Amino acid sequence: MTSQLASDPAQPAIQPAFPPLTRQTLQMRVVQRAAAELKRGLPVLIEGRAPLVVLAAETASVAGLADLAALSEPPGCLLLAPVRAAGALHRPIEQTEPAVALRLRPDMLMPDVLRAYADPTLDQVLPPIPDLMAPPLLADAALALAKLARLLPALVVAPAVPYAVAHAESRGLLTVGAEVVLAYPSAAATGLRRVAETAIPLEDAPDARIVAFRAPDSGVEHLAIVIGKPDPTTPTLCRVHSECFTGDLLGSLRCDCGAQLRGAIRRMAQDGTGVLLYLAQEGRGIGLVNKLRAYALQDRGLDTLDANCALGWGADERNFVIAAVMLRELGVGAVRLLTNNPDKVSALAACGVEVTERVGHSFRPNGVNDAYLATKARRFGHMLD
Q1: Fewer CB within 10 A of the terminal residue: the chain, N end or C end?
Q2: Residue 298 lies in a domain
Q3: Are residues 214 and 66 in the same domain?
């Protein structure tokens, strides 16, 4: 039987009640898609004063390089962080620019060669030293996008041809604004909201619950382990802990992360209350894969700081605005911070968190992580006494 309502033209069509999307939400989605395109080995168009077509060196393929060549014009270059460029070229590099641009030659436009320039853990003979050229205007946004994708910050870039800019959509070329890429970390942090909460009795803290946080249209999730019932009128014992798959889950002896995680939970249970923020910022913000690469460089003699920099990352890439937003959402104002890192105290204070006390949180070396702990004290200023 045919529905009278469905066939009656006088009846208005029923529209689905989708919530309106904000401009910021749409922009965040585009950045996430652009990062995903780089991980898939596809070029992306970065818009700005001088639009660039960019391709991640780590995931570049013959097809991806052909796409980039068809959408751009010479001269193309390979963008590297200054420290990585110095290592690849075996000579000092001025550190004043966010990126160093190596002029591309035909013998460099091969996936294996590009990956070797990007990744210092690969044992491969590089072609003769290329010429340097001035970095393009949007170099900082290009490197930032690679970092958001947790790829090595090394990209093949070239000026976009006018046709590519005008017909990007019909060519399947994703376009993202440079200013949107650079603003993404702050937008993702300030947009965090509670999305789930439940009691999770822990071995060392039976009165515990976990609160999950996520920004709109962001796949990254951060957790808060809340022990007892923190009193908003008094400073809360708090630890800001960056996730460490190898240390927290596998019990790696290369770091002290697992001991710090479990020790913080025990301390909070003994005090009767506390908040541990478990942030998805592995390896001081460089991601698990890059942390494993950093470990490989440490096995060759670099310390933890120099290894991160040799890969093209900063010594610490974490965003502590995330922690400040989570504490605000939990109703926590002032904190007694469990940390040995004075920079973490100042970073949280800069984000508006009142830190009334730094509570020491050190653990004895285990025979494997001795050099790692010594580096944290010597080069990061950690107070391990």
Answers
A1: N
A2: no
A3: no
